[in-house]
């Protein structure tokens, strides 16, 4: 996109040409004047979710009660998982909804280590989500003192290092696991290339696609990925703390073990046998009773993306991130803001990170006084998450214009350097 104007009328003109603009009206806007740029952290509430949950609560729970388990609740993790598979480039029987991303990462990492019993190393990078690091550290402690987690450093604190990964993935590597889209910078790994790098060394590949799913097409099967996990509450708009998912390539299903084994993954759970026998397929990754209301919310969020078409969502995302970068270049770069996200569309996700020495105080002023919800990540990163189904070009223009005024007018100077619990 070539931008020649930075005024709001230009943004409104872009919105008038947007084929997905009508989806904005399918979301709840309790504060019409709020500029919400945090779809990369918590997606907005779809109107369809409100209606769907009301039906589930009143009819399925209220009227049918426990009979609803046989009316569809029992199979809900698989049914919603099959829809999620459409966003992942996977087959319907390769995805199951379960637990949180962290729990699922633990389950899949331990399953991978069991498939490579003579190898003792897990490889990741220092830009992977911190929770993923904590889980992998715990997995190594549980597996035994011979296991190690090798962390590949980023060359610049923003971009991944395929070259660094290639240097350390070897015959002792059991598992390579990375975030596909990096949470701080929005950098996107080449999934096929890194997966092939792991496979050539005989290792398994596990991707965390939490910051990718719902914002861009994925091709887990085409890239021959072994395992993947991700959340539902960002671009999928599945609700706060919504259940996550596990993907496992079909040819692994009979060999994978779930160390957090529970009755929902048991082959015949209502025989109440004391001996555990895993059920065939992805259901073996279930542990406890599925959260039905949360699963219902996720289903409505996925349906909305499928209706819009993930390719169209990605096309708009690229246009909007290009527009934001152009506004940064014209309005923000001259007053000290730094672009922390790759310019190449294929190497960035749907959030843009802008650095500034006063990033924390600028972000706080935007949130508390400017009706612009962004977030801050240390040391100096302001993240702007673009959700194409409900964010407009005018939203982006307004946010950048207000950000510029916060600095030009020195509005942030009254803030002390202290953070809130959630930033």
Structure description:
It contains 12 helices and 13 strands. With 423 residues, it is of the alpha/beta class. The protein has 2 domains: 132 residues, Aspartate Aminotransferase, domain 1 (Alpha-Beta Complex), CATH 3.90.1150; 258 residues, 3-Layer(aba) Sandwich (Aspartate Aminotransferase, domain 2). The strands form 3 sheets. It has a 7-stranded mixed beta sheet, with helices on both faces. A 4-stranded antiparallel beta sheet has the order 9-10-13-12, covered by helices on one side. The chain has a two-stranded parallel sheet with strand order 1-11. α8 links the parallel β5 and β6.
In short:
This protein has 423 residues and is of the alpha/beta class. The chain has 12 helices and 13 strands. It folds into 2 domains: 8-33 and 309-414, Aspartate Aminotransferase, domain 1 (Alpha-Beta Complex), CATH 3.90.1150.10; 50-307, Aspartate Aminotransferase, domain 2.
Entry keywords:
423 residues, alpha/beta, four-stranded antiparallel sheet, Aspartate Aminotransferase, domain 1, single chain, Aspartate Aminotransferase, domain 2, seven-stranded mixed sheet
Detail the poorly predicted runs: none
CATH superfamily of the largest domain: Type I PLP-dependent aspartate aminotransferase-like (Major domain)
In the CATH hierarchy, the architecture of the largest domain is 3-Layer(aba) Sandwich
The CATH class label of the largest domain is Alpha Beta
Which structural class is indicated by helix and strand composition? alpha/beta
The order of strands across the largest sheet is 2-8-7-6-5-3-4
N-to-C order of helices and strands: HEHHHEHEHEHEHEEEHHEEHEEEH
């Amino acid at each position: 996109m070539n931008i020649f104007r930075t005024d709001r009328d230009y943004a409104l003109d872009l919105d008038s040409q947007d084929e997905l603009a009508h989806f904005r009206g399918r979301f709840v806007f309790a504060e019409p004047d709020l500029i919400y740029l945090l779809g990369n952290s918590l997606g907005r509430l779809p109107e369809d979710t409100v209606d769907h949950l009301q039906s589930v609560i009143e009819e399925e729970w209220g009227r049918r009660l426990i009979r609803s388990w046989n009316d569809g609740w029992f199979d809900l993790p698989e049914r919603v998982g099959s829809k999620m598979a459409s966003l992942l480039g996977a087959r319907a029987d390769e995805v199951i909804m379960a637990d949180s991303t962290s729990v699922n990462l633990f389950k899949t990492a331990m399953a991978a280590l069991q498939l490579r019993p003579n190898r003792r190393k897990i490889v990741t990078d220092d830009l992977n989500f911190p929770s993923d690091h904590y889980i992998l550290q715990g997995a190594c402690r549980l597996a035994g003192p011979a296991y190690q987690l090798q962390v590949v450093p980023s060359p610049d604190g923003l971009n991944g290092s395929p070259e660094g990964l290639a240097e350390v993935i070897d015959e002792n590597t059991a598992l390579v696991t990375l975030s596909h889209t990096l949470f701080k910078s929005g950098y996107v790994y080449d999934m096929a290339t890194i997966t092939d790098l792991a496979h050539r060394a005989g290792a398994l590949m596990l991707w965390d696609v939490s910051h990718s799913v719902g914002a861009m097409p994925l091709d887990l099967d085409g890239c021959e990925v072994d395992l993947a996990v991700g959340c539902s509450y960002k671009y999928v708009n599945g609700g706060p703390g919504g259940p996550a998912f596990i993907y496992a390539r079909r040819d692994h299903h009979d060999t994978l073990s779930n160390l957090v084994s529970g009755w929902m993954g048991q082959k015949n759970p209502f025989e109440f046998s004391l001996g555990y026998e895993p059920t065939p397929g992805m259901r073996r990754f279930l542990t406890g009773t599925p959260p039905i209301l949360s699963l219902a919310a996720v289903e409505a969020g996925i349906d909305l993306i499928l209706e819009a078409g993930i390719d169209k969502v990605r096309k708009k995302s690229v246009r909007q991130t290009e527009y934001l970068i152009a506004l940064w270049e014209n309005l923000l770069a001259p007053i000290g803001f730094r672009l922390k996200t790759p310019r190449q569309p294929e190497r960035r996700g749907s959030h843009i990170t802008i650095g500034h020495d006063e990033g924390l105080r600028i972000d706080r002023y935007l949130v508390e006084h400017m009706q612009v919800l962004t977030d801050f990540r240390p040391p100096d990163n302001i993240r702007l998450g673009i959700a194409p189904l409900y964010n407009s070009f005018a939203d982006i223009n307004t946010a950048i214009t207000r950000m510029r005024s916060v600095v030009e007018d020195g509005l942030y100077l009254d803030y002390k350097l202290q953070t809130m619990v959630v930033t």
